[in-house]
Write a structure and sequence with these properties.
It is elongated and about 90 Å long. Strand 4 and strand 5 form a beta hairpin. The chain has 386 residues and is mainly alpha-helical. Helices cover 66% and strands 11% of the residues. It has a three-stranded antiparallel sheet. A two-stranded antiparallel sheet has the order 1-3.
Length: 386
């Protein structure tokens, strides 16, 4: 049976850092938090420290944006800010108190250090990995909303009079702060996993160092919120890269319990099951993903792979055609579709599809050169048959 590609499709943007970009830069952020009668000293300090760190990180993000240029695409501002925030080193925090109009304020000056060379490398890796980039953007959107919620709850807390209301708002604010921190740690893990060849999302593999960094972040996050859906899905992907497939399935099960209607959870579970050769279970997971999101072409593509391995070429063709209709640039699905037509001796169709594949694949510097060579060889063979 001809070789079928089971990697996922990739999309690439290239980020180039200006010469002289590699250096360490220090930024100092400031924040003041009112210490009112409904506030605890611990929480007032916690929010002031977070505000100062965020202020310093915003400055770092502005600097990084001024030092980056892009070829063949755009770098979203949120991506730069998020990566900057994820890899800063806090040098020191200076906490002091002031009184203004009989109101006590807790003030924090936070100094952070950022390695601009490290930012450049990680930014480049993330921008070459659409799957990771999408994950980071979604986490950033969530945190933007959480930050707005935290500001609103802090204002509500300062005005609250009833003890029950104070307790409720405090608890809600604490939960939002925890969720924000979990999202930051999950983002940090994604950045570590991005790597030059991408994470498992893109069919590549992250570096051992990247996996170690990701694990540290994810284990800290699990300690804060063990049942978080996004966190457990990310942890499952890390475990897949470490080839701990049974443990990955367990984490993905937690993710599905937390977010049963998120197609990405079922799709990732299907990946983990497929890597254990549990094709029937994987098929159920991929079908569930498509049921929840009919536009999930990645799941359709993997269903094509499973049907091909079952020997049902017609069903495989059906799913590969659906995949390429939704995403004409998916080189993997095109190659696999060509293999299917070749297996059925439909040489004219195979020739057309392989040519389409080569037109896309040869423009992608990260495409598997062996696959390109095999497709090119098959084109030659088919020409002799026609």
């Amino acid at each position: 049976m001809p070789f079928i590609r089971t990697l996922l499709c990739t999309f690439f943007l290239f980020v180039i850092c200006e010469q002289g970009f590699a250096e360490q830069k220090k930024f100092i952020g400031n924040y003041s938090s009112a210490f009112g009668e409904n506030e605890t000293l611990y929480n007032a300090k916690k929010f002031a420290r977070e505000g100062a760190r965020r202020n310093a990180t915003d400055q770092a993000g502005l600097f990084i944006k001024s030092e980056v240029k892009v070829v063949d695409g755009t770098v979203e501002s949120d991506i730069i800010e998020t990566i900057s925030a994820a890899i800063i080193t806090v040098l020191y925090e200076n906490v002091y108190y002031t009184i203004n109009n009989n109101q006590i304020f807790i003030n924090v000056d936070a100094a952070v250090l950022i390695d601009t060379d490290d930012v450049g490398k990680k930014l480049n890796a993330v921008m070459q990995n659409k799957g990771v980039r999408d994950e980071i953007i979604q986490l950033k959107i969530q945190n933007n909303m959480l930050n707005e919620k935290l500001d609103r709850l802090s204002q509500e807390l300062s005005r609250a009079k009833d003890e029950v209301e104070i307790s409720k708002i405090s608890r809600e604010r604490s939960d939002a702060f925890t969720q924000s921190r979990v999202n930051e740690l999950t983002t940090k893990a994604w950045i570590a996993l991005a790597g030059s060849t991408g994470s498992v999302l893109q069919g590549g593999s992250s570096s051992p160092e990247g996996r170690r960094e990701a694990r540290l972040s994810l284990e800290e996050a699990v300690g804060l919120d063990p049942n978080n859906g996004d966190l457990n899905r990310t942890f499952g992907i890390l475990l897949m890269e470490e080839k701990q497939f049974a443990a990955a399935v367990e984490k993905l099960g937690i993710a599905i319990q937390a977010q049963p209607n998120l197609a990405q959870n079922h799709y990732t579970l299907g990946q983990a099951l497929l890597l254990q050769n549990k094709n029937s279970e994987a098929m159920l997971a991929f079908n569930k993903a498509v049921e929840l999101d009919s536009n999930m072409w990645r799941a359709l593509n993997m269903l094509g792979v499973i049907w091909y391995e079952k020997g049902d070429i017609d069903n495989a063709i059906n799913f590969y055609q659906k995949t390429t209709k939704m995403n004409p640039g998916c080189s993997e699905a095109l190659y696999n579709l060509g293999i299917c037509y070749y297996s059925k001796k439909e040489y004219e169709m195979a020739l057309t599809v392989f040519r389409d594949y080569l037109q896309i694949a040869t423009k992608n510097p990260n495409e598997d050169k062996q696959i390109i060579a095999r497709a090119d060889s098959l084109v030659t063979v088919i020409k002799h048959k026609l």
